[in-house]
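User: Predict the structure for this protein chain, please.
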Amino acid sequence: MGSSSNSYKDYDAKVAACNAQSGNNMGCAQSADLRSIRDSGDTKKTTGFVLYGVAGAAIATGAVLWIINRPESYEVRPEDLNNPVTFAPIVSPTFAGASVTGSF
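Assistant: Here is the predicted structure, written as structure tokens:
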């Protein structure tokens, strides 16, 4: 986000210069040049946040795939599973619902 920081610094410098030229310390009217510099900074900042999110998703995906890619195979048997809650859909011609069973 260094590039967006530079855009915002340029924007601040131009506003300060405009303010110094007007001499009234009331700010400056928004010009197309100032708006362009600020919009450029906003776009760069948003792009940076999106790319940080993409990088985080890539790291998380890599970690999951690394964990899944085990060097030895294994078998999951139903008796090895200790599910305290089970969910089963129930569908018939006259009824639709669900069955939830739990144990603890």
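Helices lie at 2-22, 32-68.
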